[in-house]
Design goal:
This protein is an alpha+beta fold. Helix content is about 55%, strand content about 15%. The strands form four sheets. Strands 1, 3, 4, 7, 8, 9, 10, 11, 12, 16 and 17 form an eleven-stranded mixed sheet that branches.
């Protein structure tokens, strides 16, 4: 009975109610969007690599090394010698090592030179191994394995020829067009930067740069692609490498040993520790976004409260009729609280629906532009707590107009 009365009362004032509903919907949309994207971003970054004990690169900041070696963001300060990689990888405490060579691209997507061990030992998420949707790992010098997003967006299939570009710009005029690569494998989607990466062998990277000096190609080198297939293409340097250790207990000991490596200044980082450092750095931004979202919601709540308070004067006849039929003053108090609750609940549904539609439309954009794979799952634990706080806050803010209505009923 009270619910029907509240709905009818809101319908009689539908003009002001719709405006309040729109303001509340926008505020809840912003709150849920900030929380969802914040949670999904953390999830994406945390699931990008697993099972890697140490990442080794030229001496630089731990965040910089993590970003360019794992997330393909930014550029390395320097390369490290191949001999350094072999010395550290051959340690009796190292179970496996994955070399990484960066610096080339294809239509805006990064190219990574590595070894076949990458497909065997690299894992993501909760220790999920890389799997092939089609084909197999590279075997020849000019073979390339595509990430799922690269193959999908560019429409490549097995056997297609691909020309790599020198450098990592989206548009490049320095092309390795005399030595194309052949697609031999396409990986299954991982929801990580692997999907936006082209994987070639270290020998392939050496082959396309064998007649280049300081970013410029030497004309008339006389080396054919067949000659390069047979040549000794031992890398002179690489960008970084990942290590898996035989014993987790030895991680800090191996890290100290690498950091004190005498022949060359290198640094070893723990991926999990570097990620924690990253979250600490962006915590201020996260909190600022949540604060702004909360202030937007509070403003919307105050607008609803003001609307209900202003309606009290217009509801004299309604209050008199309620009193005539014997309704106590507390009924009017509960009626106004219920009206505020209905507006909030409807706004929650509309805000969640609007956000779901936006994420469905923009998920491909986030994946291609930022490497973020957003899942449409709004009802996480934090989101449920947030919605509960929203409903509670609206009930509290509605106390002022409810008390005003209560007092008005006492005088009638």
């Amino acid at each position: 009975m009270l619910g029907k009365l509240a709905i009818q009362s809101l319908w009689d004032r539908k003009g002001s109610v719709i405006l309040s509903l729109m303001a509340m919907t926008v505020s809840i949309f912003v709150l849920l969007a900030v929380e969802n994207i914040r949670h999904q971003t953390k999830e994406n970054f945390s699931n990008t690599v697993s099972g890697v004990d140490l990442i080794v690169g030229a001496r630089t900041g731990s965040l910089n090394l993590l970003l360019y070696s794992v997330f393909r963001i930014g550029n390395p300060t320097n390369n490290i010698h191949w001999q350094t990689y072999e010395d550290i990888a051959s340690s009796e405490q190292v179970e496996w090592a994955i070399p990484i060579s960066l610096g080339d691209s294809h239509k805006g997507y990064r190219v990574m030179g590595t070894s076949k061990d990458y497909f065997q030992h690299f894992s993501y998420g909760k220790r999920h191994d890389l799997e092939f949707a089609k084909g197999q790992a590279f075997d020849q010098v000019f073979d390339v394995v595509l990430g799922a997003e690269v193959a999908k967006k560019l429409g490549y299939q097995l056997g297609d020829k691909i020309v790599l570009a020198h450098g990592v710009a989206a548009i490049s005029f320095s092309m390795h067009d005399d030595r194309p690569f052949t697609v031999v494998g396409i990986l299954k989607p991982t929801g990580t930067p692997v999907d936006q990466t082209l994987h070639v062998s270290l020998q392939g990277i050496e082959a396309i740069h064998i007649d280049w000096q300081q970013g410029v190609k030497i004309a008339n080198s006389g080396l054919s692609q067949a000659d390069l297939e047979k040549a000794n293409l031992q890398p002179k340097s690489i960008t970084a490498f990942m290590l898996g250790l035989k014993s987790k207990i030895a991680t800090f000991h191996v890290q100290r040993t690498i950091n004190n490596y005498a022949p060359e200044p290198v640094v070893a980082i723990l991926p999990g520790v570097a990620l924690s450092e990253l979250w600490r750095m962006i915590a201020v931004l996260e909190n600022t976004l949540l604060l702004v979202s909360a202030l937007v919601f509070i403003a919307a709540c105050l607008g609803v409260s003001a609307m209900l308070l202003a309606s009290i004067r217009e509801r004299r006849r309604e209050i008199q009729l309620l009193r005539i039929v014997g309704a106590p003053p507390v009924v009017l108090f509960l009626l106004i609280e219920l009206e505020a609750l209905i507006i909030t609940l409807v706004s929650c549904v509309l805000g969640a629906g609007l956000l779901t539609a936006c994420l469905a439309l923009l998920k491909d954009y986030f994946a291609s532009q930022y490497g973020l794979h957003i899942e449409i799952n709004l009802f996480t634990q934090n989101s449920v707590y947030l919605l509960a706080a929203v409903v509670s806050a609206s009930v509290v803010v509605a106390v002022v107009p409810s008390l005003s209505g209560y007092r008005k009923a006492l005088t009638n």
